[in-house]
């Protein structure tokens, strides 16, 4: 909701890509070829649309599409097998599509300077913790969104809204989502430990961009925090939601009322 609301303010039109499937991430440890084909097929659909840019807001989906695109270039046999499967669907191997994530779309294409000029309601007095997430910064050899050890783009985007984004020791810690269905307690402990630390450090909210991370920190927060002995809650919001508020878009249009940890009593912006 928030992505669709904020992008028109920067002359970007979002067009739904029809017939897309799962990125393949959930099955990559079971059937590598199936995961590879699912990712390449989605890129082939983007190629068929004639559009040159594909926005992939989810960290895991972004990782899969980039990782598969890199790996298939190193394996000619796999490349040939995938091309054969694509032809069965009247699709061609993608060669011109550029993959964007929410963070590099706003940081590299739109730029913080242009965002700053569009802000109508600066978020002054608010201090956010930025959570970029694991899968958009590593491994660096496949081309990632930000620096693998010192990511700064999300903080820069937050500061462009007039808010403060402080660094903190746990910034690169995983949300635990990858372990949720196999080792639930470990997953909740990872998320809970980070959330508890952010509360103790006095952050007013956690800003993320990935739906998987958002599930762990927002929807699973109460369970996660209780796992590590915490009690209080910390609001969790998408970057595009706070960007929307800075653009003076009503919170209902940004889906803030759907966030399970956010209330206007906690953070007013």
Descriptive report:
This protein has 2 domains: 2-100, Glutathione S-transferase Yfyf (Class Pi), Chain A, domain 2; 111-258, Rossmann fold (3-Layer(aba) Sandwich), CATH 3.40.50. Helix 2 (32-49) packs across helix 4 (76-88), helix 5 (102-110) crosses helix 6 (112-118) and helix 5 (102-110) packs across helix 7. The radius of gyration is 19 Å and the shape is globular. The chain starts with a helix and ends in a 23-residue tail after the last helix. It contains 11 helices and 6 strands. The protein is α/β, with parallel strands linked by helices. Helix 7 (153-159) links the parallel strand 3 (127-130) and strand 4.
- What's the helical proportion of residues? 40-55%
- Rough outline: globular
Provide a count of the helices: 11
- N-end to C-end Cα span: 18 Å
Count of β-strands: 6
Count of the separate structural domains: 2
**Gyration radius over CA:** 19 Å
């Amino acid at each position: 909701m928030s992505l669709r609301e904020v992008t028109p303010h920067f002359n970007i039109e979002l067009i739904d890509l029809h017939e897309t499937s799962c990125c393949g991430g959930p099955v990559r440890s079971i059937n590598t070829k199936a995961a590879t084909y699912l990712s390449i097929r989605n890129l082939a659909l983007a190629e068929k649309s004639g559009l040159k840019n594909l926005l992939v807001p989810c960290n895991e989906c972004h990782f899969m599409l980039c990782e598969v695109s890199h790996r298939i270039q190193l394996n000619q046999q796999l490349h040939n097998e995938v091309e054969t499967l694509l032809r069965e669907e009247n699709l061609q191997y993608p060669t011109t599509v550029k993959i964007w994530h929410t963070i590099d779309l706003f940081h590299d294409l739109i730029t913080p300077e242009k965002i700053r000029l569009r802000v109508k309601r600066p978020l002054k007095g608010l201090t956010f913790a930025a959570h970029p997430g694991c899968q958009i910064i590593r491994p660096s050899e496949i081309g990632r969104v930000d620096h693998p050890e010192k990511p700064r783009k999300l903080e820069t985007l937050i500061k462009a809204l007039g808010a403060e984004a402080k660094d903190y020791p746990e910034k690169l810690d995983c949300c635990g989502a990858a372990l949720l269905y196999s080792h639930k307690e470990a997953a909740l402990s990872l998320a809970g430990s980070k959330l508890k630390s952010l509360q103790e450090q006095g952050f007013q909210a956690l800003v993320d961009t990935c739906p998987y991370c958002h599930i762990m920190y927002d929807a699973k927060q109460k369970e996660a925090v209780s796992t590590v002995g915490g009690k209080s809650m910390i609001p969790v919001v998408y970057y595009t939601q706070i960007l929307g508020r800075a653009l003076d878009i009503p919170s209902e249009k940004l889906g803030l009322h759907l966030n399970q940890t956010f209330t206007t009593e906690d953070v007013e912006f």
